[in-house]
Each structure stands twice: as structure tokens, then as C-alpha cells.
Amino acid sequence: MSRRSLVTGGAGFIGSNLVRALLERGDRVRVLDNFSSGNRGNLEGLTDVEIVEGDLRSYERVHTAVRGAEVVFHQGALGSVPRSVQDPLTSTAVNVEGTLNVLLASRDEGVGRVVAASSSSVYGDGGVFPRVETQLANPISPYAVAKLAAERYCVSFFRVYGLETVALRYFNVFGPYQDPTSQYAAVVPRFIRAVADGVPVMVHGDGEQSRDFTYVSNVVAANLLAADAPQAPGRILNIAAGGSETVNSLAETIGTILEKPVARTHEAVRAGDVRESWADITAARETLGFEPKIGFEEGLRLTVAALVGSSAVVVPRDRPWDIPHPS
Ligand SMILES: NC(=O)c1ccc[n+]([C@@H]2O[C@H](COP(=O)([O-])OP(=O)(O)OC[C@H]3O[C@@H](n4cnc5c(N)ncnc54)[C@H](O)[C@@H]3O)[C@@H](O)[C@H]2O)c1
Description:
The chain is an alpha/beta fold. The chain has a domain at 4-171 and 215-241 and 277-293: NAD(P)-binding Rossmann-like Domain (Rossmann fold, 3-Layer(aba) Sandwich), CATH 3.40.50.720. It has helices spanning 13-24, 59-66, 81-86, 88-109, 142-161, 187-197, 216-226, 247-258, 282-288, 296-308, and strands at 4-8, 28-33, 49-53, 71-74, 113-119, 165-170, 173-174, 201-204, 210-211, 214-215, 235-239, 245-246, 264-267. It has a seven-stranded parallel β-sheet, sandwiched between helices. A two-stranded parallel sheet has the order 7-10. Helix 1 crosses helix 7 (216-226), helix 4 (88-109) runs parallel beside helix 5 (142-161) and helix 6 (187-197) packs across helix 8. The chain is globular. The protein starts with a strand and ends in a 19-residue tail after the last helix. Mean pLDDT is 94; it is low at 311-327.
């Protein structure tokens, strides 16, 4: 079914992957982005995308972008825990006010559903593993606090205005179009780049911290499912691969894939980073019919292929976001 979809942050890593999937299924796609951490290159070759350049902090620009949309996928945000530690005011303005603007404009324009990106960081440190949505959130970084506020606004707009919203808590997403060069680059593209270039990977702490690394096509599929699943409105759902890998094992696996030795340097643990992360994805399975199709190692192979074009890598086997919809 062809729809008019808006992707905020559509020039970013996850947004641009989602835009491709939406175009493939025949949607008319609009992107709202200010190109602060995303870039136009991520949308290169996609001629059918309408781009609204603007800032999420401006209700007027957001309203212009939302007008006519049936579904809004709100991916736009200032990501990164360290960025929020350095500049909590800007992170909060974009991530909280920006979300509020998206929700207000969607309410005002009668949008059918808003699917918003939240983050595993809201769980913070301590507590039990794997993380379940019913657990109390205990965010420790300004980024995580803002994401928690934003997802609670989503629930609130469903409760008080009847706007259908779904918040998806992503766990460490990686894949093609993720920027390896930015000052705030995520660990996967940073490590791939370093190992490919034969320089040491830089590890914060002892490297035994764990993450539920999630290949991006799984996240894209979750968004598509969340836009339609009848039981999803008002929910907050973990989206992850449902496993747990240490940063050290990430480095080793990349070395194995690239058939290169991995040297490491260690720096201090970063303020705001959590020690452990691992998701229970039962709620997403039950509510969305979500199933992560691409696991950690296969996802890494695909990402290495995209980032460094290694011939040692097996290429994509299918379009993993084509998950049958739950009836
Ligand atoms: N990548 C992950 O591992 C991860 C994990 C949890 C949650 N998330 C969330 O997923 C979403 C997408 O993340 P990503 O990794 O693709 O990040 P990204 O930085 O690649 O994409 C974010 C996009 O938002 C845009 N943007 C930022 N500030 C803006 C503003 N003021 N106005 C308009 N556009 C603005 C950026 O230019 C960029 O294109 C974010 O909401 C992020 O918080 C990501």
C-alpha cells in the first residue's frame, strides 16, 4: 500500500536506510533534516525524495514537513551520549522540543501514526538483564534523559489527544550509511575503519562492556511493522537483536572478517556510558510480529562490505525489511 511518509532525520544513518525501504515499497517519501549530523550523500541517487531542509526546533518548519503525511517516522535527533555530556542544552532542545514539535504538528495535521526512535540508554546502569520495558528507566546521561522524556511525550500524546504513537527503543544500531568519521562516531564503523586501515582500535575502559549490537535492516523492519500493527499505539518497545557481545569481541570479529590483526589502545571509560546492554524483545515480537533477521556477525559482514568494499565478504542475501505483516 503506497503512503505519504515523512522521515525526520532522513539524511542520517537509520533514516536513510528507512527512506530506501519506504521507496521500495512504493511510498511517497519526504525528509525533514538540517544536515547537522546526517548528509545529502546518504540520499544520493534517490530521485523521488522530497527534501524539506529545516530544524526540528522550529514548529513552523516541522509543521510544513508534516503537512499531508499519513505516517511520520521520527528519526531526527542529536545522537551520542558524549555529545550530550558536552552540550546538554542543545541535545535536549533537539531531542525533546524537536519531538514535541513533531507530535504537535502530527496532532494538528491528523497524521495517522507517529513512530519515534528512542534508545536503550534510558535503562541506564544496574538492574536486571535482559532489559524489559516494564523495568524502571534509570537514565544516567543527558542524552538518555532526553530520550526518556521524548518517549513519554509520545505515550502522553496517545493518551490525551488520541494521536497514535509508538516509541522504539533501539539498541546499538549499526550498518551501511553510518558515519565512521564524525567526532561522535559509533563504535562499529570506527572499529571497522581502524582495522581496515591497520591502526589500533581505541577502546574505552577494558572492552568487557557489552552491547546488543543490532543490524540496521532489523530496525527498519521494526519501523515498518510499528506503522501498522494494531496493538502498537501507546507502546514503548525494545528493538534489538536480543543478544549480547562485548566491545572486545566486536573488535575480534571485525579482525576475523577482514582477515587482519587487531591492535588496541585503551582510554578512560566515558562519562554517561553504561556497562551492560542486552534486550528482551518479547514485547516487540508479540506486538509487532518483529523478528531480527540479520544477526550480529552477518550484519558485520554486510557493514564491512559497505564501508570498505572487502571482497572477503558475503553480500546481502535478501531485502531483510520484507517481513510479512502480522495479521
Ligand atoms: N544509531 C544508534 O545506535 C541509535 C541507538 C538508539 C537510538 N538511536 C536514535 O535513532 C535515531 C537516528 O539515529 P542515527 O544513528 O541515524 O543518527 P544520525 O545522526 O545519523 O541521524 C540523525 C539525523 O537527524 C538530523 N538532525 C539532527 N538534529 C536535527 C535538527 N535539529 N533538525 C533536523 N534534523 C536534525 C541529522 O542531520 C541526521 O540526519 C535518533 O533518534 C537516535 O537518537 C540511534
